[in-house]
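In full, the data.
>
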Amino acid sequence: MISILLLIVSIASAITSPDTSEADARQLRIGPALSGGAALGLAHIGVLKVLEREGIPVSCIAGNSMGSLVGGAYAAGYSAAVIESIAVHADFSVLFSSGMPFGAQYLPERQQSQRYIIELQHRNLVPALPSGLVPLQNVEFTLMDLLSEIEFNTYYDFDRLPIPYRAIAVDLKHGELLTLKQGRLQQAIRASIAIPGVFSPEIIDTLELVDGGVQQFLPVEPLFEFKPDLIIASTTVRSQQQRRTGGLIDIITRTMDLINICDYREQLSYADIVIAPDVDQFMSSEFHRARELIDAGETAAERALPAIRKRLQGKKPDDRRNAVLPRPLPVIRSIRFQGFETTRIATVSSLVRTAPGVKLDFSRLHNDLKALYHTDLFEDINYKIEFAGQDSVDIVFEVKEREYGFYALGMRYDNTDKVVLGIEAGQSNMWGLGASIRAALNLGNPRELRFGLTGTRLFAFPFGYRIDTYRGSVTRPYYEDSDWLTDYTIIYHGALIEAGYILGHNAFFDVGMSVRQAVYRLPQVPGFDTLPSSEWMIGPAFRLEYNTHDDLHLPRKGAAFTIAADYSSGKLKSARDFVRIDASMRRYLPVSERFLIVPGFDIGLCFGTPAWASYFLTGGADFVGFEHGHFTTENRTILHLGFEYRLFNLLHREDYPLYLQLLSSIGTFERPDDVIRSGDIRSHLHWGVGAGVRTNTPIGPFALVIGAADIDKQDLSGTRVNYHVSIGREFRY
């Protein structure tokens, strides 16, 4: 009887117990958890590179902050090498700014948006603080381009991605740590990287989400639902002995590390393998060191390979990926706009090319979003797809409008006018049409107060207009026989009304009417005896401007051309009849990666007898070697030629190049036809040569030029050597 019972027990045991060989052969599921760390999180790319290179497949993945971005892109099917290429070549100064890509805005909009160094928003004259110091709209556009199609093809379910994925974020309203597992992958990543106080929160439905690192720096627990056999934690915490604090991102990320130290240790205890790249030498804000951070991740992962292989010994890793098949694109049933409170939909609707009755096209949809954002009317913009059946959808453009009140501050110094301050206040998007009403005050030389209304759109048309009234004074130098004689002051006031058309994104023209009076405060010296005490200038005006410079203040390539014409008519009660034409061109020609050739010209012609205030003032920045205002003339013709060599980039930033310059100018201040008829052209020409440097600073470009004037007209002992130095943006109208 006992033998029968033993036989039954052994049979049952054989049936219920797994075969040892089958258990050893069972495929092992590997799940990495990627920590936050801002720029330090780029080291995760190196970790994934090593796993991929060594044939160690990933079955599931979770990430927080930068780990969510790297992990999300990897889960979506991008290889570690592709993610590395994106990170290394990304311009993070552009991604983490609200600046528009070159050419995205109309030229007048670019000029206005880059005029001042500081601009604050206000609501009913009360300053309105942004929800984050650094916007992430440009990051969102990049994520849309990378992820929108894979999101759609996986039915907005993170379990259907090639690698199942989880991101974590914190709901600000309820203080809850959330594990994001469905919806827009782009929005989940955007929420997870929203460092509080640095980046604005991400709004998903009714949730206001920020960086998951507020509560959990290293998301190991979210992997538990996948039941991985081997959890690899990749963490980028700097040692406590590292004392450098850095900027705002560094301080806040370090603070979150310290606050959540208990949870961090608990998450580490859940991991089977811990990979900790050495990031002590890096700051959380040093995105420009992406290559070095990735290398640090590779080095740490290679050190961990023996431990990983030991855990894998005799077992086959699970290398299965979810198959993602293209999903039939639905037809758009309708388009709606959500979040418009001030802006009229008619003002921007012409920018939207996505239309009902056609199939959904993500590329076109993204371009529509970018076009709307580039109007500078919106702080944040996204889209939502609402399914109306199997094969039709409604597209919802979701926008968050800016606070349209603004204050702006500009500052500039040069060795002629010294310090000039600019203060401007106003309200943009008047009547929902995108127009701006402004009051601007300049303190310095010139001193000026200006009120005006400007706009670059009128409903569907790129129609520019401007109405300005102004009053001010400017002090100018007067030279006689190349020697400074005295300074004089012009007090002026007037009004300008003009309208024109935007010619693409790089050009515009305006026509209008100008009324101006100049009152002269002149010293009692010869040369001013015949001038009236004041003069009126009234008549039509025309301006055409073309500009493809890659930066309005510190260009490295492109061309700029301007021509302006004013007609002052005695029939309109002007003091004199004259036509004034002013044309200029500068072109930056890159010969190599570092070397530029910069040709240009300035041409000014007056027909008739111009008012004294309309004379051309030449010298300093626009004629190397001569002092500012050295020539006060009715006509001028100047040719420029410069050679520039980029020595290096300051602060390792592409937008802070340091150029060494060799400059030359040649010109005449008589009518070109008179010079030619004289038969002695050389005697009418003036020459200037110089050397200098130019670069960028937080308050605008810096330039220093030292030059010599008319060196062929006198012996070297009498050669004049002048310098011109300036720093800051030119904000004056």
Remarks:
- The first helix runs from residue 2 to 16.
